[in-house]
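Try this one yourself first.
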């Protein structure tokens, strides 16, 4: 799950590892492609010794990070995918250095993950940065310097913003700025303290930079969809103003800059407008639950805002109709996730047979005449923490990257809009269960659906097969997530699964309304 946060979202001498040196330093050898899709790049020979000096530090530091996906599994090895010095030690910041690293992490039972690291280097770490320290480097190009997580250092965070102001490349890193955008230098940076699966740096009260930690080749939907909405003039998005990415090897780009094959630029970070004075929907909902208050007006407005976003995305990006086989594939994937979760979370097992009926109904839906199901680009991980209410009372949606645990290609696929609706309905349920207030959830779920219907013309409550299948799939995802990361919260999705297992569709698939 992504975070709940109150936010929207001069080139120095490049230097990085040569391909041959990186292969020599890599335990996997020169012919193994990086999980990032990014090749090592030429420059100061960092790689002979860089990976060896980083490895013991990363083995200890990485598993402790909130955004590390492989918790609980041993680390088998590392491969240096790319390394670029944005500021070498001894430059204009004196002994202070800034190193950008993409490193593949190998763990048993899962594909290699590529992580983005921004590392500061300093001979004597200030006490304020001790908590961000990886430790002292022994050997390699940073021998004798202490390495630490650079976003926590205001000097290096400011340097990164300075680099984002100037379009162009540094090594394999490409920095881009929206046309007509000019943002001032000298904004004071601070790292967001919200729990999140990435790292965000706020600059003054003007911008927020989201740094993606686990990265994959391709455009991250948070950039792709936010740009599409901004270009459509949507007021429901914090528009991107700049971003940076890692380029693929030279000579593999297709027509008009499209990547050929599987090697694409890798989105690394997005700078967006910050929304000062805004409140996230999760905090507002919890306050309402605690008082047994009436949040229905805000819930309905949030439903309207969600429908507006779906409409703008449908105008900006391709829309398709899902036929019977497509719905069967979606239902099959849901059933597979249910089976995998039941193996991992024993408390889910008593409900498996009943829950699978929701997916069986979805698979049969496409066979019934007149049941066209529209698929389009959607938010993909919509919940109350992904919505900000501004001082003017208007809602803005943030964090369009989708569920980080799912592959990037899956997050970029068109899907029925009801998937986002189901995610928000589950979020109202989460808010209510923190205080045991079930009736609060029911009336606010209804208000959200009514607001959505007022704009879209489609009431999700009149699509029982779709909404039950997608809400069940979301609750299954939640059960697996909570079992792994927050066991104390596991009863919340388990309660939903028990309710959904007991439910039956209010209409047969042949009576399902067409979205």
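Now uncover the answer:
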């Amino acid at each position: 799950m992504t975070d709940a946060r109150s936010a929207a979202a001069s080139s120095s001498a490049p230097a990085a590892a040569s391909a041959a040196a990186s292969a020599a330093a890599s335990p996997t050898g020169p012919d193994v492609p990086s999980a990032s899709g990014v090749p090592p790049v030429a420059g100061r020979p960092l790689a002979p010794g860089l990976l060896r000096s980083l490895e013991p530090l990363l083995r200890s530091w990485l598993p402790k990070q909130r955004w590390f996906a492989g918790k609980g599994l041993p680390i088998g090895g590392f491969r240096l995918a790319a390394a670029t010095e944005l500021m070498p030690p001894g430059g204009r910041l004196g002994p202070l250095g800034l190193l950008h690293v993409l490193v593949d992490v190998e763990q048993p039972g899962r594909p290699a993950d590529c992580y983005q690291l921004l590392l500061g280097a300093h001979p004597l770490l200030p006490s304020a940065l001790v908590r961000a320290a990886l430790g002292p480097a022994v050997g390699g190009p940073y021998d004798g310097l202490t390495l630490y997580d650079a976003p926590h250092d205001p000097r290096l965070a400011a340097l990164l913003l300075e680099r984002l102001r100037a379009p162009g490349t540094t090594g394999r890193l490409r920095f881009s700025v929206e046309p007509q955008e000019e943002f001032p230098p000298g904004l004071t940076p601070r790292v967001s303290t919200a729990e999140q699966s990435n790292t965000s740096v706020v600059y003054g009260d003007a911008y927020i930079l989201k740094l993606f930690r686990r990265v994959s080749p391709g455009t991250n939907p948070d950039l792709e969809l936010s740009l599409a909405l901004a270009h459509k003039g949507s007021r429901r998005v914090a528009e991107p103003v700049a971003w940076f990415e890692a380029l693929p090897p030279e000579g593999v780009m297709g027509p008009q800059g499209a990547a050929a094959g599987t090697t694409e630029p890798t989105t690394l970070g997005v700078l967006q407008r910050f929304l000062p004075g805004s409140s996230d929907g999760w905090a507002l909902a919890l306050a309402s639950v605690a008082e047994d208050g009436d949040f229905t007006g805000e819930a309905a407005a949030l439903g309207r805002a969600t429908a507006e976003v779906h409409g703008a995305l449908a105008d900006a990006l391709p829309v398709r109709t899902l036929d019977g086989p497509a719905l069967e594939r979606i239902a099959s994937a849901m059933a597979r996730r249910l089976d995998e979760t039941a193996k991992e979370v024993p408390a889910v097992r008593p409900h498996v047979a009943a829950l699978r009926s929701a997916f069986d109904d979805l698979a049969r839906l496409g066979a019934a005449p007149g049941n066209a199901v529209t698929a389009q680009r959607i938010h993909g991980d919509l919940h109350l923490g992904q919505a900000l209410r501004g001082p003017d009372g208007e809602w803005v949606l943030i964090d369009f990257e989708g569920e980080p645990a799912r592959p990037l290609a899956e997050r970029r696929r068109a899907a029925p809009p009801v998937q986002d609706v189901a995610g928000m309905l589950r979020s109202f349920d989460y808010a209510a269960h923190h205080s045991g207030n079930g009736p609060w959830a029911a009336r606010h779920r209804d208000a959200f659906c009514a607001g959505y219907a007022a704009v879209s013309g489609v009431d999700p409550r009149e699509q029982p097969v779709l909404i039950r299948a997608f809400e069940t799939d979301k609750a299954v995802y939640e059960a697996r997530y909570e079992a792994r990361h927050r066991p104390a919260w596991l009863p919340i999705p388990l309660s939903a699964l028990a309710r959904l297992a007991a439910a039956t569709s209010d209409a047969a698939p042949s009576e399902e309304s067409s979205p």
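Discussion: Residues 1-33, 37-43, 251-262, 505-515 have pLDDT under 50 and may be disordered. The two ends are 27 Å apart (CA to CA).
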